[in-house]
Amino acid sequence: MQNVLANVAVSVSELKKNPSAVVSGAKGAPVAVLNHNKVMAYMVPAETFEALMEYLDDQALAEIVRSRAHEKGVKVSLDEL
Fold this sequence. Notes:
- By secondary structure, the chain is of the alpha+beta class.
- About 45% of the residues lie in helices and about 20% in strands.
- The protein has three helices and three strands, in the order βααββα.
- It has a three-stranded mixed sheet.
- The radius of gyration is 22 Å and the shape is elongated.
- The protein starts with 7 loop residues before the first strand and ends in a 13-residue tail after the last helix.
């Protein structure tokens, strides 16, 4: 059985009828969109999606930092430029 990772779930047909009502009714929470009783997508507010993308970017940068932590630095002088 598939897990539904949201407290709010709607069918595709319900979403098509009144998407604004679904979004406002969720009050900022994620919404699972069901097709034949299976989750086909999750809907989140734009602010949540943007924050998630920033978080994932931060995690990718942190991984680069961790992977380079053992590298030796190179001394640079601005006068040489």
